[in-house]
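Schema walk-through. Below, the input block comes first and the output block second. Nothing else is stored per chain. Lengths vary across the set, and this one has 340 residues.
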Amino acid sequence: MIEIDGSYGEGGGSIIRTAIGLSAATGKAVRVFRIRKGRTQPGLKEQHLQGIRAVSDFCNGKLRGAELGSSEITFEPGKEFSDKVRIRIETAGSVGLALQPVMIAATAAKKEVKVEINGGATYGKWAPPIDFVEGVFSKILGKMGYATEFEIKRHGFYPTGGAKVEVILKPPDGLKGLNLVEQGKIENTKGISVASEHLQKQKVAERQKISARQEIFKQLKVSSNIKTAYLKTESTGSAITICLTTQKGGILGSSQIGEKNLRAEIVGKQAAQSLISDFQGGATIDRHSLDQIIPFLLLSQFNSSLKFSELTTHALSNIHVAEQFFSKKLKISEKMLFKQ
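--- output ---
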């Protein structure tokens, strides 16, 4: 059984998501202890709990210790994968985070899988918005042959949540390698700025959009096609997601969640600045997609090479966890990540 210290590195939920997802994908049992030990609220939270329970049900595995606040779990993956996964999130936990381990586990299913998520938030702090998962990360996965389809039936913001999302996962028989070495010139920059209907009079979505477009044009001299939308949600909130593609196949994204007392113009500008920083740093993949793609790189039988501008603590933690399941290692050299 593979033993993983959940307090390693940044000590967050990505460790448990990556570990459980890879356990199901590789068929190797795992024990994770000291889960989120350094956090103000240590142990499993709702989105972690529902995500790993969903993986266990998905592959008919045996999961022990999976309770709210639990600091240790053991998981013995099964080999019989269902074609349907249901996730119920009672709080405003992140839909995107709950989906992550299921997407990893599905690589072993060898068939189309329908994921139904009820509850939770499609937009939340410290988590990838559903627009980022669909419009940025899933496009990168698509380059590895892993197709996805999203249907957002209802959105949700913190603190109420209440989202309803359906995702079709179409993993390939074998993942392709991902080789994005040269950045190339900008091909396209687009995105979406959203807000709850409560904020329509204040034109929050438009203000986020205008600010982001202005910053991108100022720094990169390109026009951005950013759409706006107002959502019918129980809680008030806003968000913006931007995706930049290059002529050499690079895909870089960024997102920012609106907060109380944070002007919409600042939200848009911050999203743009994160994207600009990665692009001007020569990256072919943004910093947040990089940490999420790591398990898939190691699951592929083919070589991969990616150029990044910044290696986050999440990425370093995910590299550490993912390497426990494989004899092969990832190599980092001069802002390049290699899997051979």
